[in-house]
Specification:
The complex is a heterodimer of chains A (about 350) and B (about 400).
Chain A (H helix, E strand, L loop, with lengths): L1 H8 L9 H22 L1 H10 L8 E2 L2 H4 L12 E4 L10 E4 L1 H19 L4 E6 L13 H10 L2 E6 L9 H10 L5 E6 H15 L8 E6 L3 H5 L4 H12 L3 E6 L9 E3 L5 E2 L4 E7 L4 E2 L5 E8 L9 E13 L9 E8 L14
Chain B lengths: L3 E4 L5 H4 L11 H16 L7 H9 L2 H14 L4 E4 L2 E5 L7 H11 L3 E6 L5 H14 L11 E5 L4 H9 L3 E6 L1 H8 L8 E6 L2 E7 H5 L3 H16 L9 E7 L3 H15 L8 H17 L2 E4 L7 E5 L1 H6 L8 E7 L13 E7 L3 H9 L7 E4 L9 E2 L2 E2 H4 L1 E4 L3
Parallel strand pairs in B: 3-4, 3-6, 4-5, 6-7, 8-9, 8-13, 9-12, 11-12, 13-14
Antiparallel strand pairs in B: 1-5, 2-17, 10-11, 15-16
Classes of the chains: A alpha/beta (about 350), B alpha/beta (about 400).
């Protein structure tokens, strides 16, 4: 199984495989993972046995990771436990990572990010406060995301202070010191918008991050409430900060590493290590391009937990395969947000 | 105080918190009002698509009300029955139409009524309110405006207290928590509470009969089962959540579920992707924890989990949306250890009524009604074991 994965890491670019070729390679890896997890993870085996259908058609709903400790390793092998973000009242997902899975996740992320940044480490501005990676309360998606990209940067600088206010001194020093150099800026979409771009705008301040590339992630839910779409986000960010290269990415704590980065044409791309399907839940059939449905994700990276085929609660549309104008091969797509939770029904609740 | 007034069109606080006069049971004007209401919703083409509303109109059609009155009169021959007074109905969140049944029975008994609708009330409720107001606007029913007041407000103890203070009876629909919360609000010591708590239902099928059922009858059974199960996304208390086969055979079971699937294709169930995923999460979780097997189906609009009797009875509080646990027995009495007051309706096919009467009469613990498949959702004036015409009247004795 490892030989297969190593082949993917040896690719020159994670976007060089045409979809048909990629699927043949991916399917063989995924098939191995089906059997691997079937024998290693008892809860997964019980689901498979109960369904009694082909393994390759079984996608675990991501919510299961909130209710069960799903792992294919013994507890001594756990290197770290990743948790989804969530308020205190909500249950969080727990994803158990062993050494080899952690290594694979890092290798995949390196391949993907290097495609955009090259091999050199760049000065890195983090749109968050310094406690975010230490603080237990935010030791989750935000902290994990920052730690994940940390290795691609140097001279790490936090743009916000402990009170989530703009740290002008730090930013000005960063911009001045690395003027005319390539830089990396990273933050969660909402943080970038609310605490960085909007704060600067309110102060009437413009900064010069002209030679920077911004990666941001974390969902559009809060921004949609404020009627901010991707185009608005990009144009306003460019106006205020000078950043021209802005890339959203789609990823989840259940499949760290194999992230889906937005290209310069505005589409998210599946890298070699993972793939995306748009599913109609009623039949679990894959929908053709341009039809909107629920996103299922496949990844060859999860060895320590049965996360290789997952059904998300995000909705999206595949735009095409191999023919994005940006030149990347494979599938490209758009995410439209979360599935609307069905209203509570039944005669059980009077007090609403 | 933030109160929304729906019926009558013009109302206010003062009106809402004041006791109004009662009428005699089955007063002519009320009976005519019910007739008018029924014929309006049955004949209005705009309401035709709402199965639940049409069923409601049919349920309160003229002949049905006449029969109901006849039964009432026979039962109460020689007795003096009067309205109980002011009845406060607290409607459930999302079984849109059920409140109207207890409201109309109460009306027929001569009571004046205040209904608190859920703030989540849906489209069918809006339509019902519209029709109610139209009928009440007719001059001949003007005096009934005092008898029907429908309002809505967020959970507010002060308003609940004020209405409770003038009530002679409260009809409370809801889950255990909300019933407890409302019950805590004081009511006059002389008043009564009628509680319709969350309940669950199941179906029993005679395997041998179903195995040899002709195609046409199988199809009609399938339609009836679908109506019982897929209205309100299977979340009505009376919708079956599991199916118990008496001497079920694989051939018979397959035939039954195939007939269901065939009809389901064209059935307007309004299940969403989110419902389907909830159902997947529930059934995969169950697969991890209990011994179940999925019966393979053409689509996830129908999910059947085969399991043992104990698991079926333990796992009933599921998310509905077309999910059925399925189990086998060879003797009705093997159900007895599992029955309790949580169970409301048993819908059946292929059993003699006498056999069921004998079974129930043996001091069954739980189960309020046993009805043929297809009638699970039909409201009956005896509900959850309460005879509403009894509860919503008072009897005066003269010696």
């Amino acid at each position: 199984m490892m030989q297969h994965i190593d082949f993917f890491f040896s690719l020159e670019s994670p976007y060089c495989l045409a979809q048909a070729e990629k699927r043949i390679l991916l399917d063989s890896c995924l098939k191995n993972l089906d059997n691997y997890h079937y024998h290693k993870c008892m809860p997964y085996k019980r689901i498979v046995d109960a369904l009694n259908g082909p393994l390759s058609e079984i996608y675990l709903p991501v919510r299961l990771f909130k209710d069960f400790e799903l792992m294919s390793i013994s507890s001594e092998q756990i290197l770290k436990t990743l948790m989804s973000s969530g308020t205190t009242s909500q249950k969080v997902s727990r994803i158990f990572i062993d050494k080899i899975t952690a290594t694979n996740q890092t290798k995949a992320l390196v391949k993907i990010i290097q495609h955009y940044l090259g091999k050199a480490r760049l000065p890195m501005l983090i749109i968050d406060h310094p406690d975010v990676i230490h603080n237990r309360a935010s030791f989750s998606a935000r902290g994990a995301g920052i730690r994940g990209l940390w290795t691609f940067g140097r001279n790490h600088t936090y743009a916000l202070d402990h009170e989530m206010k703009i740290n002008h001194e730090a930013i000005d020093e960063f911009c001045e010191k690395f003027k005319h150099q390539n830089k990396i800026v990273f933050g969660f979409t909402f943080m970038v918008w609310k605490y960085f771009v909007q704060s600067l705008e309110a102060m009437g301040k413009r900064i010069d991050l002209l030679d920077s590339i911004l990666f941001h992630s974390g969902g559009w839910k809060k921004l949609q409430q404020e009627a901010v779409d991707n185009d608005t986000f990009k144009s306003k960010t460019t106006l205020i900060t000078g950043i021209k290269h802005i890339h959203n990415f789609y990823g989840m704590v259940e499949q760290v590493g194999a992230i889906y980065i937005e290209c310069e044409k505005g589409y998210l791309h599946a890298p070699a290590f993972s793939d995306i399907k748009v599913i109609e839940p009623a039949t679990m059939n894959e929908l053709p391009c341009h039809q909107t449905g629920v996103i299922a994700v496949e990844s060859i990276l999860p060895l320590s937990y049965p996360g290789h085929r997952l059904l998300t609660e995000d909705i999206g549309t595949i735009i095409g395969e191999d023919d994005c104008q940006c030149g990347k091969k494979g599938k490209y797509f758009l995410i439209h947000g979360r599935l609307k939770q069905a209203e509570t029904r039944g005669c059980s609740d009077t007090m609403h | 105080m933030d109160i929304q007034y729906f019926v009558p069109k013009q109302s206010d606080h003062k009106h809402l918190f004041t006791k109004t006069n009662t009428l005699l049971p089955f007063s002519r004007s009320v009976v005519e009002f019910v007739n008018q209401f029924s014929s309006t919703i049955v004949t209005d083409p705009a309401l035709k698509t709402y199965k639940e509303l049409v069923a409601l109109g049919f349920w309160m059609r003229k002949s049905a009300i006449q029969n109901y009155q006849k039964t009432f009169d026979i039962k109460n021959k020689g007795k003096i029955k009067l309205a109980r007074g002011t009845v406060f109905h607290i409607a459930p969140a999302n079984v849109d139409t059920i409140f109207i049944y207890s409201l109309f029975i109460s009306l027929l008994m001569g009571n004046s009524n205040i209904v608190r609708l859920s703030t989540q009330a849906g489209q069918q409720t809006e339509l019902l309110i519209h029709v109610l107001n139209d009928v009440l606007d007719e001059r001949r029913f003007a005096h009934l405006q005092d008898q029907v007041q429908i309002v809505s407000f967020e959970h507010n103890t002060e308003i609940l207290e004020k209405i409770s203070a003038i009530s002679d009876a409260r009809v409370i629909w809801g889950g255990d928590d909300s019933i407890e919360r409302i019950s805590r609000i004081p009511i006059s010591p002389k008043a009564i509470d009628i509680k319709f708590a969350n309940k669950l239902s199941f179906t029993i099928l005679n395997g041998k009969q179903i195995e040899s059922l002709p195609e046409k009858e199988m199809d009609s059974l399938a339609i009836k089962f679908l109506n019982d199960s897929y209205s309100f996304a299977q979340m009505a208390c009376s919708s079956p959540r599991f199916v118990i086969w008496m001497n079920g055979t694989e051939v018979g079971q397959k035939r039954f579920w195939c007939a269901i699937e065939k009809r389901l294709d064209s059935y307007e169930h309004q299940l969403t992707d989110s419902d389907i995923i909830n159902k997947m999460v529930y059934s995969y979780s169950l697969a991890i924890e209990k011994k179940i097997r999925f019966r393979s189906t053409r689509s996830n609009y129908l999910t059947i989990l085969r399991t043992d009797l104990k698991t079926a009875f333990q796992s009933y509080s599921h998310c509905g949306s077309g999910l059925f646990l399925e189990s086998n027995i060879d003797n009705l009495d093997s159900l007895l250890p599992f029955l309790n007051r949580d169970f409301q309706t048993v819908s059946y096919y292929g059993f003699e009524r006498n056999v069921l009467i004998d079974w129930v009469s043996n001091n069954l613990n739980g189960i309020d009604r046993i009805v043929p498949v297809g009638q699970a959702l039909d409201f009956y004036p005896v509900w959850d074991g309460f005879d509403l015409s009894e509860m919503l009247t008072r009897e005066v004795t003269v010696l």
